[in-house]
Specification:
alpha/beta, TIM Barrel, 3 domains, four-stranded parallel beta sheet, three-stranded antiparallel beta sheet, 38% helix
């Protein structure tokens, strides 16, 4: 119903603009209107398979760009997600089964989705799990079967692609932001420490 209300608001807004009149703005509907116009994605917080399917149905009905976030039971909908080409942000997989929606939480979910060709990113859902544990999330995905390079992509270039920022960030390439870290070892090894940090090519931190 909210998107139908936003559609009606959009028609009304266009008429007011054409007539040179001032419309009393409704900020909530303005945001949904931008989603309808695909100026921003619909980021659906959904753990259970039925909730994910509801998001897929709404996105199809209104022609929305959709991102599924959390996706605890997304492994049950691999065919639907691949067919619709929907990216998914998995996590926080560190969490316990504190609510019924997370009964099937598993690191295997990200592994299976990635193997099926779904664009997958990992999240800690900071501050549920502090963001500094993101590399450990990738390491645990590897432990449960994800290819090592795919796990690195899931915390670097894949989230950048999902947010349409991969032209700037997510990988080290010419003409991208020169933001990088130099580490003491493998990025997925919990013993590894950050030695230097560069932002826009300038060193902003160094271990002395």
């Amino acid at each position: 119903q909210a998107f139908i209300d936003a559609q009606v608001y959009g028609i009304k807004k266009q008429k007011y603009l054409e007539d040179g009149e001032i419309l009393d703005r409704e900020l909530g509907l303005e945001t949904l209107l931008e989603v309808l116009q695909r100026k921003m994605p619909l980021r659906a917080h959904a753990h259970r398979a039925d909730d994910i399917m509801t998001a897929l149905r709404i996105a199809e009905e209104f022609g929305l760009e959709l991102i599924i976030e959390h996706g605890t039971e997304a492994h049950k909908l691999i065919a639907e997600l691949t067919e619709a080409n929907i990216p998914i942000v998995i996590g926080p997989s560190f969490s316990n089964r504190a609510k019924v929606e997370m009964a099937e939480i598993s690191w295997k979910t990200a592994v299976r989705l990635n193997e099926a060709g779904v664009l997958v990113a990992l999240t800690t859902d900071h501050s549920v799990t502090p963001v500094q544990y993101l590399p450990l999330c990738a390491a645990l995905a590897v432990k449960h079967g994800m290819d090592e390079m795919e796990a690195l992509k899931a915390i670097t270039i894949n989230p950048a692609k999902i947010l349409k920022q991969d032209h700037r960030i997510g990988s080290l390439e010419a003409n991208k932001d020169a933001d990088m870290v130099v580490m003491s070892g493998h990025p997925l090894d919990w013993r590894t420490r950050i030695e230097r940090v560069y932002i826009n090519g300038a060193k902003v931190y160094e271990v002395i």
